[in-house]
Amino acid sequence: METVWAVPAQVGRSLGDDVIGYGVEAEDGSIGTVVRLSPVPGFGHLVIDAGVWRFGRSVVVPAGLVTAVDDGRKMIKVGCTKDQIKDAPRFERDQDTGDLYYLRHLGAYYESLAAAPE
Questions:
Q1: How far apart are CA 67 and CA 40, in angstroms?
Q2: Superfamily name and number for 9-115
Q3: What InterPro entries does the record tag this protein with (predicted)?
Q4: With 0-12 CB in 10 A as exposed, 13-18 as middle and 19+ as buried, what is 24?
Q5: Per residue, what are the HEC states of 22-61?
Q6: Are strands 75-78 and 23-26 parallel, antiparallel or unpaired?
Q7: Would 50 disulfide with which of 54, 75, 82, 112, CB 3.0-4.6 Å?
Q8: pLDDT tens digits, residue range 33-66?
Q9: Are 44 and 33 in contact (CB under 8 A)?
């Protein structure tokens, strides 16, 4: 992964406001729906309403985990499991999704997954 915060080139497109409302699928099933994108330059990420799956909380997934965007199905696929997303650092308030300390902590978590041997 080039950077955890940038959409990989093989996805073939960038993420804009057109993906708000798209569903998001992990390697092992549905996560939820995109409710907004990153407001922080250099820290591209999706904020996903995970509904009941995440006890009514939203989750943040860095753009570098996106593996595919299917505009026909309005679906984004990410290269991690639901448990990996559940185990990621949580944000407490909406403004935390723009907080550099939180984003660096989140990025380190996802980078450690990419570096871990399979």
A1: 21
A2: PRC-barrel domain (2.30.30.240)
A3: Bac_photo_RC_H_C, PRC_barrel-like_sf
A4: buried
A5: CEEEECCEEEEEEEEECCCCCCCEEEEECHHHHCCCEEEE
A6: parallel
A7: 54
A8: 999 998 788 999 999 998 865 556 789 999 999 9
A9: no
